[in-house]
Amino acid sequence: MNDAAPSPFAEQILPPWRRAVLKVGSSLLAADGGGLTPRFALGLAQFVSANLLAGREVVIVSSGAVAAGRAIVPRAAEAGAAIAARQALAALGQAQLATLWQRFFERPVAQVLLTHDDLRNRRRYLNARATLKELLALGALPVVNENDTVSVDELKLGDNDNLAAIVAALVDADALFIATDIDGLYTADPRRDPRARPVEDVRELSEAVMAMAGGSGSAVGTGGMHTKLQAAAKAGAAGIDTYLFNGRSGEVVRALAQGRLYGTRVHAGRSRIAARKYWLRHAPVEPGAIVVDAGAARALRENGASLLPGGVTAAEGDFRRGDMVEVRMHGGDGMQCIARGISQYSAVDVRRIAGCHSRVIEATLGYNYGGSVVHRDDLVLLP
């Protein structure tokens, strides 16, 4: 990795974090002439390993499949190839990309291919989140990429920056690290304007800040600084800070592993927990509700517990798995809404498991989405 010049950005101390997403773009992985190179990936892998050894969790969002495919079938490598040709290159390159990351780690690397549609659909969103969290619990290292072999609009955008922000919210990350091929955000494009100055701390993504971002500076990458700031805005809405840094600088990456940032920090507007609770409180609810007994209501209010099927007495309406619904109980003045949250089961399923112990869910339904009807991370209490 290049250590020739120190970063023009001043040192910042990273806040503590428990789980993070690291986005790595094609410009850091693509070799000259096609294919992939470990040149810069090695240092980033060492950053990941250092944090895993410290007990933290990391999810990698990695571009590079199309670049890898170009080395396998060079004749299809022309820039501007038809979408189908690029999709074929992505299919050829995905295995190469997963292999590149696996070579750096003793723990298993899990390839997870997603599209934005997977994350917009609430049921698929829940399935993706459950899979990623289970992989982390198993000690695996998830490597996420867009499923470029089937997506069209996403492939044309090539925007893994925004995908990384969505994944950060998906896994309840505390930080989003975006490795790029420049030092961070500048007041203008430093490659074209010698008067450009580093912007080390962004408290608000105003129009003036967004105007500082230029286009893509790489022949293999398709996301410029503008998409990185868009991603930071998405992450910030979920209460997640974003850190932009130069993934080509060994000095910068080693410092990052020691909790020191030479780059740009984009602050979230509110804390991650506050952002999540705000969304849960104000997102539209589906018609219907889950009705609970007094014991379950007390456990939710006093113990911060998840809603288990044993405390459920009924399900109203016809909601589906992944829908936002109200949680109600009978009170002195009739039915009272005490909470709202995302149901792990449909109304039909909730009726079948109401009053049952969590351990009999699979025997009753023939499948199991977890032991809770509404997990505490997906639930907010109401006054």
Describe the structure.
This protein has 383 residues and is of the alpha/beta class. The protein folds into 2 domains: 11-275, Acetylglutamate kinase-like (Carbamate kinase, 3-Layer(aba) Sandwich); 283-381, PUA domain (Archaeosine Trna-guanine Transglycosylase, Chain: A, domain 4, Roll), CATH 2.30.130.10. It has helices spanning 41-53, 65-72, 83-102, 116-120, 122-137, 153-157, 160-170, 207-211, 225-237, 250-257, 272-282, 294-303, 347-353, 361-365; strands spanning 11-13, 19-24, 57-62, 109-114, 141-146, 175-180, 201-202, 241-246, 260-266, 289-292, 312-316, 324-331, 334-342, 379-381. Strands 1, 2, 3, 4, 5, 6, 7, 8 and 9 form a 9-stranded mixed β-sheet that branches. Strands 11-10-12-13-14 form a 5-stranded mixed β-sheet. Strand 2 (19-24), helix 1 and strand 3 form a beta-alpha-beta unit. It comes from Stenotrophomonas mori. Its EC number is 2.7.2.11. GO terms for molecular function: glutamate 5-kinase activity. Pathway: Amino-acid biosynthesis; L-proline biosynthesis; L-glutamate 5-semialdehyde from L-glutamate: step 1/2. Belongs to the glutamate 5-kinase family.
Entry summary:
Keywords: Amino-acid biosynthesis, ATP-binding, Cytoplasm, Kinase, Nucleotide-binding, Proline biosynthesis, Transferase. The chain is of the alpha/beta class.
Key features?
Carbamate kinase, 383 residues, nine-stranded mixed sheet, Glutamate 5-kinase, alpha/beta, Archaeosine Trna-guanine Transglycosylase, Chain: A, domain 4, five-stranded mixed sheet, disordered N terminus, nucleotide-binding, 2 domains, Glu/AcGlu_kinase, cytoplasm, single chain, transferase
